[in-house]
Amino acid sequence: MADESDQSSTNPISGVVAGLRGVAENVVRAAGAVNPLGEMPTLPEVATHPGAMSAAQLGAVRSALQAQRDAVHAMQSQLTAFDEQLQVLHRLLVPLAEWSATWARLEERVVPRAHEAEGSPDGDGS
User: Fold this and answer.
1) What is the percent of the chain where pLDDT is above 90?
2) Structural domain of residue 18, as residue ranges?
3) C-alpha 101: how far from its chain's center?
4) Per the structure, how many domains does the chain have?
């Protein structure tokens, strides 16, 4: 963690990459996954030549973005599977709810109500 702060002070892109990693980790934690991203790659050491530095930095940013896109794709797959499970559960509950309502109507017709069983004045014919 300390070398990331040292790296961000000398390398402006590493601050952006660290921020993107933080966002990806927060999204993963919010989705309930423990750590599907695994260990994120660290920024490579770059040469002192400015052109090489930019290419290496862009490569690191590209790698970090691809890792985040892969994580989002994995979460989408998990959400799709979860939605399919909810759909199956819904299909199972619809007939069960209809059966339960039919059973309740049958009980109302067959089982006498408590006030009728006690012998209410209307029920005894006097």
Assistant:
1) 34
2) 2-39+50-111
3) 34
4) 1
- Residue pair 47/94 in contact by the 8 Å Cβ criterion: no
The residue type at 28 = V
Q: Give the global pTM.
A: 0.42
* Overall average pLDDT of the 19-47 stretch: 67
Residue 120 lies in a domain: no
Q: Does 116 map to a domain?
A: no
In 3D, which of 14, 23, 75 has the Cα closest to residue 41? 14
Q: Which whole-number Å values give the CA distances from 13 to 16, 59, 60, in the listed order?
A: 5, 11, 9
Amino acid present at 118: E
Confidence of residue 25 (pLDDT cuts 50, 70, 90): confident
What is d(CA 105, CA 3) in angstroms, rounded to the nearest whole number? Answer: 71
User: Would you say residue 60 lies in a domain?
Assistant: yes
**47-70 pLDDT, tens digit each:** 555 566 677 888 888 899 999 999
What is the C-alpha to C-alpha distance for residues 80 and 47, in angstroms, rounded to an integer?
A: 44
- Asked, for residue 89, whether it belongs to a domain, the answer is yes
